[in-house]
Specification:
Largest sheet: 6 strands, parallel
Radius of gyration: 17 Å
Strand content: 5-15%
Shape: globular
Order of helices and strands: EHEHEHEHEHEHHHHH
Number of domains: 2
Structural class: alpha/beta
Distance between the termini: 44 Å
């Protein structure tokens, strides 16, 4: 199956570079380009891509607000935010808006391609340079204005799984910790996302922190 990608960046040269990298892969295809956030939202609704590469700083509507609109319009598209700025506030805002990943623009071509594939699968994806800092400091100290989803429908086991997702553990690592098969863990993860109305693992990480299931590590 070919993954459909929309590239949103206000610089034409950046969009062209991303297109060349993406279209060179047999399983990826750029189906649209946007020069501002409003156009990105429109193309996402019209073209139904699997992944949107979203720049943070764009005219008309910025990447954070465009991400929020895409997440709120029942689109299946997952947003992968890219920026030249290693700024924690951008990471937090992007995650709270519904982004499924965050990377810096100096990423290597092969890493970008892998990131698109991971994001399309719903795996958590953040640049290694910002992952631990964001999870440990900013998600717990920057409250979401919207209340987190209630955990009352989760079973005890599902709460355990959500807690371990919040610690950025993979399904294999969760299976080892709980002494379950990976298939069973995958079923629990699917149930957690469905019951909480979450798009992917990234949003599950945010929910785990918002509910205090995961505490920031001490420096």
């Amino acid at each position: 199956m070919t993954l459909r990608v929309v590239v949103a960046d206000d610089q034409a040269l950046v969009r062209t570079g991303f297109r060349m990298i993406i279209d060179a892969r047999d399983d990826l295809e750029v189906v649209g380009e946007a020069s501002d956030g409003r156009e990105a939202v429109r193309l996402t609704r019209e073209l139904a891509p699997d992944v949107v590469l979203m720049d943070v700083r764009m005219p008309v509507v910025d990447g954070i607000e465009a991400t929020r609109q895409i997440a709120g319009c029942d689109s299946r598209a997952r947003v992968l935010v890219l920026t030249t700025w290693d700024v924690d506030a951008h990471v937090v805002d992007a995650l709270r808006a519904g982004a499924s990943g965050f990377l810096l623009k100096d990423i290597r071509p092969a890493e970008l391609v892998d990131a698109i594939r991971l994001t399309a699968r719903g795996d958590a994806l953040l640049a290694p340079t910002v992952l631990s800092r964001v999870l440990d400091r900013f998600l717990r100290t920057t409250p979401d204005p919207a209340p987190p989803p209630s955990l009352q429908d989760l079973s005890g086991r599902e709460r355990e799984v959500l807690t371990l997702i919040g610690q950025a553990l993979s399904n294999a690592e969760i299976a080892g910790r709980l002494r379950l098969s990976e298939a069973t863990v995958k079923n629990h993860v699917t149930a957690v996302l469905r019951k909480l109305g979450l798009r992917d693992r990234v949003q599950a990480v945010v929910a785990a922190y918002d509910h205090g299931l995961v505490e920031p590590r001490r420096p």
